[in-house]
Amino acid sequence: MPFAPDEIGRQHACGIGADGHWHGWFDVRVDADALRRLGLHPGRPTAGVDGPSPPGWWHAAAERRAR
Q1: pLDDT tens-digit profile of 8-61?
Q2: What 8-state DSSP symbol labels residue 61?
Q3: What pTM, to 2 d.p., does this model score?
Q4: How many angstroms separate the Cα of 2 from the Cα of each of 26, 39, 42, 46?
Q5: Rounded to whole angstroms, how far apart are CA atoms 56 and 62?
Q6: What pLDDT score was predicted for residue 26?
Q7: Confidence band for 1, pLDDT divided at 50, 70 and 90
Q8: Residue 10: beta bridge partners?
Q9: Distance between CA 33 and CA 41 in Å, rounded?
């Protein structure tokens, strides 16, 4: 892994949502200097689309598997 243990933080929270089902949330934080070593920094332009979107059936299948 490219990060030392003290360069990355992670937390998990869970609880019952408004719909009555359990939900979980993850929070992952990485030290800014650790990201700079990988070439990621505030001055870097944001990512852009590099091709067409997958077909509609692909999205529908992914949503079915997510449940």
Answers
A1: 999 999 999 899 999 999 999 888 888 888 878 767 766 667 778 888 888 888
A2: H
A3: 0.49
A4: 20, 12, 19, 22
A5: 10
A6: 92
A7: low
A8: 28
A9: 9
C-alpha span between 4 and 30 (Å, rounded): 10
26 touches 15 (CB < 8 A): no
CA separation for the pair 29, 17 (Å, rounded): 24
d(CA 44, CA 42): 6
Cα 5 from Cα 2, distance rounded (Å): 10
The two three-digit tokens of residue 42, written as one number = 């505030």
Length of the chain: 67
Residue type, 4: A
| Biggest distance spanned by C-alpha atoms of the chain | 43
